[in-house]
Write a structure and sequence with these properties.
globular; mainly alpha; 19 helices; Amino acid/polyamine transporter I
Length: 506
């Protein structure tokens, strides 16, 4: 019997009201930042200070306890639950590659080389700056900030959304839809769902604007370094447009043909860069420092997780740990929806361990080799990254201490950064379109043209900010403030998830 046409082809339906409202809000904020940057920055900084002072400690506890919840999900009977029918759609390498590219964006490629220098110059635990003790804690802290702790937030969000979408058959990939399904007969679930959708969209737009605001200047600095010129607005504009074209094309092509292939290529290129630095750089030092840093991080994990510095009041937890955890909350919806999309056919155990261990270990290797190279240059007096006025320019000077470091390595690094940035934005455009879609198509995708609309929004936000010279710090701060409510959203989804487990006998 021939299936009815509507059973064969189902067109995605756009939720126009939520899309228009969010685009207007983004437009107003960008306009205010461009017109009155100082006043806007002052307001959002005051809001940020209030939010972190109230929510800082609860966020630390949530992430710490969250690790144990993740381990329970992986190793209990819940770990055996399969998410959807059939075999996994992607190989394990592509699966991890897409996760890493979506999660790390361009920020990790840059911070893998330089983050240790921040903790070397301004260490935690009342350690004296620029000392051996500060150096010994610098890379372990980078491992801590980019390892388990951040992935915990992504895992908890992803498992709840994935169970709702693949097992409970919630028909759309919207955080609000998952929450509404969990709330049952709650009278005000629809209005609350709209608020959740708005927060999701605004946080992702802000977070990706920050990624572009960091990634584009890094690529521009690399180009300027190779060409022997100063980075300027023109170079930034050209780079931004190239990035926009790349992630727009991959969005149109789709995840399988677009993002999967670009993620694989980006990971291969990054592996080559990392392997090159390890082989031609201070190999013995990097191996020893990596080993020591993993051990130091694991042995101090509890202290790092719950460090609030109540006596010293150095501001370290607020500026670093709490800041990065809230930034991860900002990406929670993005990662949750995207991981759900690519996890069909896998078990909860596979999702948890791949994200928790796969991304963490991959990140440690990247930070260990890249950061170990920079730390060795610092302690041997070859080049002081911590003393550089501009760490972006200093990074390319650091490359110059290696063979092929004048031209080849900067170009490869710039291309890897572009790849990470494009794939992260590709996943963001999918998540944004899905979050503003009332009905997905028969393949579980939003409208491809609608994805292009969000590609344009993601491009225009940093473009306007760069053109006007407004500070990206205001955008970074406001998206972090918007992300804090996701702490409560995730807690609510976890409660709902375990209620579903009980109902389904899982």
């Amino acid at each position: 019997m021939r299936k009815p046409d509507n059973a064969i082809k189902q067109k995605a339906v756009i939720d126009k009201p939520i899309s228009i409202v969010c685009v207007v809000i983004v437009g107003i904020f960008v306009a205010l930042m461009a017109a009155k940057p100082d006043a806007t920055l002052d307001v959002v900084n005051k809001i940020f200070d209030v939010v972190t002072s109230i929510m800082g400690v609860p966020i630390l506890w949530f992430v710490f306890i969250g690790l144990f919840i993740c381990l329970y999900l992986a190793f209990s009977k819940h770990g055996n639950v399969k998410l959807g029918d059939g075999k996994p759609e992607y190989s394990m390498f592509s699966y991890i590659a897409m996760m890493m590219c979506a999660a790390l964006a361009a920020t990790a490629t840059y911070y893998s080389f330089v983050e240790w220098s921040f903790y070397y110059a301004e260490p935690a635990f009342s350690i004296k700056p620029l000392t051996q003790e500060a150096a010994e804690m610098s890379l372990p802290y980078a491992f801590f900030h980019w390892g388990f702790s951040v992935q915990v937030i992504f895992v908890l969000t992803a498992v709840a959304i994935a169970y709702g979408y693949h097992v409970k058959k919630v028909p759309v990939l919207r955080v609000s839809a998952i929450c509404e399904s969990m709330m049952g007969d709650f009278k005000y679930k629809k209005p609350l769902g709209k608020v959740i959708d708005a927060l999701t969209i605004l946080s992702i737009v802000g977070g990706m604007g920050v990624s572009l605001g960091l990634g584009v200047p890094i690529i521009s600095a690399g180009i300027a370094h190779v060409m022997g010129v100063e980075a300027n607005f023109t170079i930034n504009l050209i780079v931004l447009l190239i990035v926009a074209v790349v992630f727009s094309v991959t969005s149109i092509i789709g995840i399988e043909k677009g993002m999967k292939k670009l993620s694989d290529l980006t990971m291969y290129l990054m592996i080559i860069i990392i392997a090159f630095i390890f082989v031609v750089g201070p190999t013995k030092f990097i191996a020893k420092e990596f080993t020591y840093s993993v051990g130091k991080m694991l042995s101090n994990y509890v202290d790092m997780s719950l460090f609030t510095d109540p006596i010293g009041n150095s501001g370290f937890p607020e500026i670093n740990t709490i800041f990065l955890f809230t930034l991860a909350l900002n990406y929670a919806a993005l990662m949750g929806i995207f991981i759900t999309k690519i996890s069909k056919g896998r078990t909860i155990r596979e999702v948890v361990l791949t994200c928790l261990l796969g991304i963490s270990v991959g990140t440690w290797i990247m930070f260990g080799i890249d950061g170990g190279f920079g730390l060795h240059a610092e302690v041997t007096g070859l080049f002081s990254l911590s003393g550089a006025e501009d760490t972006q320019a200093g990074l390319f000077q650091l490359f110059g201490t290696l063979p092929l470091g004048k031209v080849i390595l900067p170009i490869a690094f710039a291309l890897a950064t572009l790849g990470f940035l494009a794939t992260s934005l590709d996943s963001a455009s999918f998540t944004l379109a899905a979050s503003a879609t009332a009905k997905l198509d028969e393949n579980g995708n939003p409208n491809s043209k609608f994805r292009l609309v969000w590609c344009a929004v993601l491009t225009l936000v940093p473009l306007v900010i760069m053109f006007t010279g407004a500070p990206f710090s205001a955008l970074k701060t406001i998206c972090i403030v918007l992300s804090v409510p996701f702490l409560f959203v995730i807690i609510g989804m976890l409660i709902g998830l375990f209620r579903w487990f009980k109902e389904d006998g899982n």
